[in-house]
Design a protein that fits this description.
Blueprint: E1 6-11, H1 32-38, E2 44-50, E3 71-74, E4 77-80, E5 106-110, H2 133-139, E6 144-150, H3 152-165, E7 169-178, H4 185-195, E8 199-201
Parallel strand pairs: 1-2, 1-6, 2-5, 6-7, 7-8
Antiparallel strand pairs: 3-4
Helix pairs in contact: 3-4
This protein binds pyrazine-2-carboxylic acid (VGL) and zinc ion.
Pyrazine-2-carboxylic acid binds near residues 12 and 17.
């Protein structure tokens, strides 16, 4: 068992990010067994859930003529346009059925503002609007985070870099994470995480 100041942060292990889902990550379901096993080592387990309204601005379908996996400009910067995924209350937004979600101490839902995407578990993509996770972790006395889940190069990387900036000791377990890898995004995200002081393991 790790010290009580360590938490496991499990990012977006949801049906839509697993094979057969709307935004499937290759081998996305392969993270479930190692994550369930890791939970036994941590007194605090936090899950995040991507949780979009149907009119979310990150969906290509809401931009007439736009194709998924292209990039558009939003007021807060460039935004990849995704297939419709993780719509609030839909089957695709559920946690993977084999994830031990009942073990979670806290579930953070993100991406509910139709105008702003939210890759990070801490802030929306404007990088200033908080999700509330930082206050929750502070209240629980957490100072170190092990981060796992989907996708390595988007929500895992954004969460890890924000966590490092906020002063947490951050480890990403790559063996319990999988990436989308859009135009070299995986290699870029690994570089950015290392540069932010994130320890990459596995
Ligand atoms: C994610 C793209 C869009 C993720 C969420 O969980 O990494 N990626 N929404
Ligand atoms: Zn999303």
């Amino acid at each position: 068992m790790r010290p009580a100041t360590d938490a496991l942060l499990v990012i977006d292990v949801q049906t839509d990010f697993c094979p057969g889902g709307a935004l499937a990550v290759a081998e996305g379901d392969a993270v479930v067994a190692p994550i369930n096993a890791m939970m036994a080592d941590f007194a605090t387990v936090v899950l995040t859930q991507d949780w979009h309204p149907a009119d979310h601005a990150s969906f290509a379908a809401n931009h007439p003529g736009a194709h998924p996996f292209t990039v558009t400009e939003m007021p807060y910067g460039p935004q990849v346009l995704w297939p419709v995924h993780c719509v609030q209350g839909s089957a695709g937004a559920e946690f993977h059925p084999a994830l031990a979600a009942a073990r979670a101490d806290l579930v953070v839902r993100k991406g509910a503002n139709p105008a702003i995407d939210s890759y990070s578990a801490f802030f929306e993509n404007d990088r200033v609007t908080p999700t509330g996770l930082q206050a929750e972790l502070q209240a629980r006395g957490i100072s170190a985070l092990t981060i796992v889940g989907l996708a390595t190069d988007y929500c895992v990387a954004y969460s890890a870099i924000d966590a490092a900036r906020l002063g947490y000791a951050v480890t990403v377990r790559l063996d319990a994470s999988r990436g989308i890898d859009l135009d070299g995004s995986l290699a870029a995200a690994l570089d950015e995480m290392r540069a932010a002081g994130v320890v990459l393991e596995g």
